[in-house]
Automatic annotation (TrEMBL):
<keyword id="KW-0677">Repeat</keyword>
<dbReference type="InterPro" id="IPR036322">
    <property type="entry name" value="WD40_repeat_dom_sf"/>
</dbReference>
<feature type="repeat" description="WD">
    <location>
        <begin position="102"/>
        <end position="134"/>
    </location>
</feature>
<feature type="domain" description="IFT80 second beta-propeller">
    <location>
        <begin position="300"/>
        <end position="588"/>
    </location>
</feature>
<dbReference type="GO" id="GO:0030992">
    <property type="term" value="C:intraciliary transport particle B"/>
</dbReference>
<dbReference type="InterPro" id="IPR001680">
    <property type="entry name" value="WD40_rpt"/>
</dbReference>
<protein>
    <recommendedName>
        <fullName>IFT80 second beta-propeller domain-containing protein</fullName>
    </recommendedName>
</protein>
<dbReference type="GO" id="GO:0060271">
    <property type="term" value="P:cilium assembly"/>
</dbReference>
<dbReference type="InterPro" id="IPR015943">
    <property type="entry name" value="WD40/YVTN_repeat-like_dom_sf"/>
</dbReference>
<dbReference type="InterPro" id="IPR011047">
    <property type="entry name" value="Quinoprotein_ADH-like_sf"/>
</dbReference>
<dbReference type="Pfam" id="PF23335">
    <property type="entry name" value="Beta-prop_IFT80_2nd"/>
</dbReference>
<dbReference type="GO" id="GO:0005813">
    <property type="term" value="C:centrosome"/>
</dbReference>
<dbReference type="Pfam" id="PF00400">
    <property type="entry name" value="WD40"/>
</dbReference>
<dbReference type="InterPro" id="IPR056456">
    <property type="entry name" value="Beta-prop_IFT80_2nd"/>
</dbReference>
<feature type="repeat" description="WD">
    <location>
        <begin position="184"/>
        <end position="216"/>
    </location>
</feature>
<keyword id="KW-0853">WD repeat</keyword>
<dbReference type="GO" id="GO:0005929">
    <property type="term" value="C:cilium"/>
</dbReference>
Length: 623
């Protein structure tokens, strides 16, 4: 994966550009020290002047009112806030009319951010104050007063907390006055920029010590970069939380959410003071110190499944390679590609307007249908169908393009759903709610209605990751989940008679995945790679569970590895340095599962006697 950057020959701004913000995937606003707000149209390449601010107004930060909150009714969706050096913030319409100017701080207003539902605005000032405002610009409260300037600010995923830096410290302060404040030393120099992603709940910080760092929401360090040549002046998360961009003097870097770098560009930009991602997450724009606005598209994304490799070569083109016979197919699309997924013999690609479904048996004739909103943020696949998170809704489609169901949870924010919080099998959809993280909602895939009595699966503490098994009949469907303590539990999805409790089958589990063919679960706990060949034995006889587990040393996977896929008997793991490691598990348990499902008991017994390993006999016994 890399960035394809573009810069005009001559800058459109006469002075440095301080901030940029996207209105749509093809339109950007920029403003700088020349007091001009310019509109960039990426479709026709035109740039036009929106408004010229007064000569004593130097803009510092810009943020658009969120578009995913039904704001058309409120009439505010086409409005943005600009903070400036004269201690004011300005609410400006898309047409350039200044709706309101508010005296906010003594000294410059260094940052301003709308919360995710558009009900509040937070500003940070040179005077060290953090203030909360209503959407119309009325002061609600002064959240904090510090002795040092606050250069950046970010909302927590639930809009109930605010993250801001003071000197070398990072502070998370809840809006509730009596709640506990979290504070820790994060850098060796002044912190210049922070960002907090609502999907993965991770924090970015960048400072004058020339480093960028990744933190979790408890203040634990997950990644620290090497020291760069110049201070890091900007960081920004992609909307889906899988990537982030880092800006410095003549430097633009694309990174994975775990911190390691995909690509490094050295454009002639001066310092990049602000970075912002387009709504669809396909490109990033930067405000440059030499008057330029830099645009960078993410290309060469890569997907693998069995013997197929798919690479995004251009914004509207993909290359498919069959590694067995080296056959190459080129796929071209009418619009730019936003998301893609390759599993279960199908490639699902969403563009800004349509969804394409390719079969790996025939790349020439895809099935094409129009999308409801064209802002797909997540694609999940199972054997029979696939799930799209499009705008504010979830849609389940068959591979023939037929809409099967659209499950709904009142009040759920679909924009923060990801592969860890949603899981799909042939008959069930599971979702973890952000408002109450102890609950897992379960839906029948074909009808979209809640399972059983409609009550969600409740756990005693917050759930971090969920995964549905893929094999067997619907009545035996199981869900595995990891809670905040990193304990692994398994529970039945459909309850018959007496309610079954979740059973703990592992501890200190960092990542997990079900096999795509049979109900075999693998995970990494502590420094061991563990395979649960038959997790369901926990419901038969818990004392037999250890006999169905295989473990091997996993120290080679280093800190914080992630299981990328579990296809057949091959598990792919991404290490913390970004490299992919493949490991194979024994093929025999999957074969025994298949024999028993097909009631081929004689063959299963013969295989057990041939292999002569105790847990295969246990597998057979508990069946």
């Amino acid at each position: 994966m890399r960035l394809k950057t573009s810069l005009l020959k001559e800058p459109k701004h006469k002075e440095l550009v301080s901030c940029v913000g996207w209105t749509s995937a093809d339109e950007l606003y920029s403003c700088g020290d020349d007091h001009q707000i310019l509109k960039w149209n990426l479709l026709n390449g035109e740039t036009s002047l929106v408004v010229k601010l007064p000569d004593d107004t130097y803009p510092i930060d810009l943020h658009w009112f969120p578009k995913n909150v039904g704001s058309k009714k409120q009439g505010q969706s086409d409005m943005f806030v600009i903070t400036s050096s004269d201690g004011k913030f300005h609410l400006i319409s898309k047409l350039g009319r200044v709706e309101k100017s508010v005296d906010a701080h003594s000294g410059a207003v260094l940052a301003g951010r709308w919360n995710y539902d558009g009900t509040a605005l937070v500003t940070a000032g040179e005077d060290g104050h953090i203030k909360i405002w209503s959407k119309s610009g009325m002061l609600r409260s002064t959240l904090a007063q510090n002795g040092l300037p606050v250069y950046s600010v970010a909302w927590g995923p639930d809009s109930e907390k605010v993250l801001y830096p003071v000197g070398k410290q990072l502070i998370i302060k809840p809006l509730q006055p009596s709640s506990k404040v979290l504070q820790w030393k994060a850098h060796e120099g002044v912190i210049l920029k922070v960002d907090w992603n609502p999907v993965n709940d991770l924090i970015l910080s960048a400072g004058e010590d020339c480093k960028y760092k990744v933190w979790d929401s408890y203040g634990r360090a997950l990644y620290s970069s090497t020291s760069h040549e110049y201070p890091i002046t900007s960081v920004s998360w992609a909307p889906d939380g899988d990537l982030f961009a880092v800006g410095s003097f003549h430097t633009l870097r694309l990174c994975d959410k775990t911190g390691w770098s995909y690509a490094l560009e050295k454009p002639n930009t001066g310092s990049i003071f602000s970075l912002t991602w387009s709504i669809d997450g396909t490109q990033v724009a930067g405000a440059c110190g030499n008057g330029h606005v830099i645009f960078a598209h993410v290309i060469e994304q890569h997907w693998e499944w069995k013997n197929f490799e798919v690479t995004l070569t251009k914004r509207r083109a993909m290359q498919v390679r069959n590694v067995i016979n080296d056959a190459v197919d080129l796929l071209e699309f009418r619009d730019r590609v936003i998301k893609a997924s390759l599993k279960y013999g199908h490639l699902v690609v969403s563009t800004s307007l349509q969804c394409y479904v390719f079969s790996t048996k025939n790349w020439n004739t895809p099935l094409i249908f129009d999308l409801k909103e064209g802002t797909v943020s997540l694609i999940l696949q199972c054997e029979r169908h696939f799930l799209l998170v499009d705008g504010g809704s979830l849609f389940l489609y068959s591979y023939e393009g037929r809409l099967i169901s659209s499950p709904k949870v009142p009040g759920m924010r679909t924009d923060i759903l990801n592969a860890q919080t949603v899981s799909l099998s042939n008959d069930t959809i599971a979702m973890k709610d952000k408002t109450d993280e102890k609950l897992i909602y379960l839906f029948d895939a074909l009808s979209g209605k809640p399972l059983g009595d409609g009550k969600p699966l409740a756990h005693k503490i917050e759930v971090v990751e969920i995964a549905l098994d893929q094999g067997g009949p619907a009545i035996e469907r199981k869900i595995a989940f990891v809670d905040k303590n990193r304990d692994l539990y398994i529970s039945t999805v459909r309850r018959l008679g007496k309610e079954q409790k979740a059973v703990k089958i592992g501890s200190m589990v960092h990542t997990l995945a079900w096999s795509d063919l049979s109900n075999i679960l693998c995970g990494i706990q502590d420094n061991r790679f563990t395979v649960w060949y038959y997790p369901n034995v926990a419901y038969v006889d818990k004392e037999l569970l250890p006999k169905t587990i295989s473990e091997k040393d996993g120290s080679e996977y280093t800190k914080s590895p992630q299981i990328v896929s579990f296809v057949g008997n091959r598990v792919t793991i991404r290490r913390s340095d970004g490299s992919l490691v493949h490991t194979n598990i024994s093929p025999y348990p999957a074969i025994i599962h298949d024999y028993i499902t097909a009631s081929k008991w004689d063959e299963a017994v013969r295989l057990c006697r041939f292999v002569k390993v105790s847990y295969y006999f246990v597998l057979l016994h508990v069946y």
